[in-house]
Amino acid sequence: MGASSKPELARLAHAVLQPGFAGTTAPDWVRRRIAEGLHSVVLFGRNLVDGEQVAALTAELRAENPDLVIAIDEEAGDVTRIEALSGATRPGNLALGTVDDVDLTERVARDVGRELHASGISMNYAPSADVNSNALNPVIGVRSFGARTDVVSRHTAAWIRGLQSAGVAACAKHFPGHGDTAVDSHHGLPTVAAGAEEIARTALPPFIAALEAGVRAVMTAHLLVPAYDPELPATLSRRVLVDLLRTELGFTGLVVTDAIEMGAVADRYGIGGATVKALAAGADAVCVGGENAGQAVTEGLVDAVVRAVREGDLAEERLAEAAERMRRFAAWSGERARAVTPDATRSDIGLAAARRAVRVRRRPGAPEVLPVSGDVHVVEFCPVMSLAVDGRTPWGLAAPLCRLRPTTTSVRLTEADIDHAGRALEREVLAPAVGRVLIVVVRDAARHRWMSEAVTGLLRGRPDAVVVEMGFPLDGAGDPADLVTYGATRVSGIAAAEVVTGSLTASPVVGTQAVRRAPGAGPRAR
After folding, report:
1. What is the rounded radius of gyration, in angstroms, for the C-alpha atoms of the chain?
2. Distance CA 398, CA 199 (A)
């Protein structure tokens, strides 16, 4: 290919970007960039008010290009954008994997797809195909279908079938697997220590299942996998994106990066440098704008890509290949979306699924505690969540329990509220719970030392307390939870409240989706 002009290179650069933007209407600069070759944009919680507004926004954007890919990160469960302010009405992946009914998973995903499609969204950065084999994983956890490769594989495929049947393109993530990590890639660079044979046996099968289910897009992971490339993160590694994903696994679709401004890559190479390296390694689309949204960011990335081509750091042929692949994906997803009749009908499949997921178990030597009778005091321990989770999203047990038991009292405590002398626990928890049933709600207690220690202290004084885990539980006697919801969605809280009050009978834990803590590994403070 001969050297193209700067405007032509800029058009190619626009084609491979998936930027976000601020506001609930389409900014002028976004519409101009679409006219200049931008094939995709990404919506975040800040862009969404309700279905009617989102439909108007997507129609406004598509006035410039009917095949424009409008993407969102809507995993359902704890990672929700469309229900960030109200709380998710569908359980997440871990709950679905716990039920282990692929038809249910497909129906939930189809329900998600119907809502997205009715709003004009054509691509969803989901499902997570990660096998969460590390219970202390700070960024995946309940976003995974579980700790078993076979469970994750069949539910990844089911989720893709369900979503795409509703006219929305799926995107399997985070290749080649983010489940066996102990660092949040929003802030640092995780390393996968497993060898190539172990990765092929445990982490890759869900992605193979995704390909067989017809997925046309795969999102990369910002992590180091020395078994494949000891120097470059997977997103920036040709050995991972071309040698492994394309050559060995035979993937011919769109390779999308995780948000390029995440610390794992941006802290080392800068946003522009990481973008260029990702494209050179084989990525076709660069997602940006979760934290760095705006015209200046997009223009800076276009300039970085054009400069890299002109200075020989990025082959023009590679850029053109990525742009063409993005164009073909946009045409396919647009045709698929138009072939499906919009259907905004909502179902109650989410609550039904959450009810099936909730599990009860009895601590060794502990009294029977469920269901409870009498007045209740609820304490909810609230951790700092990964940036993947919108901090505004409601969660917990207290609110739905109050609707069933109006005399319920509650308090929510963070790590900062818990002092070493235990005065906060005495003042906020034990004293108000006198004469009441005490319910302690935790979220990923195994990962938060302050939380697990607080629970241990409370159980010494109140062994009759009910412990509810709304995150990723541990297996075995080390986990004090009496009730597990496998996610902190609104419907998970409703299901838990129904079990607590006796209006729903939950299944016992049989063959858990949790994993045991690695030998010698203690709970980690956030």
Report:
1. 23
2. 41
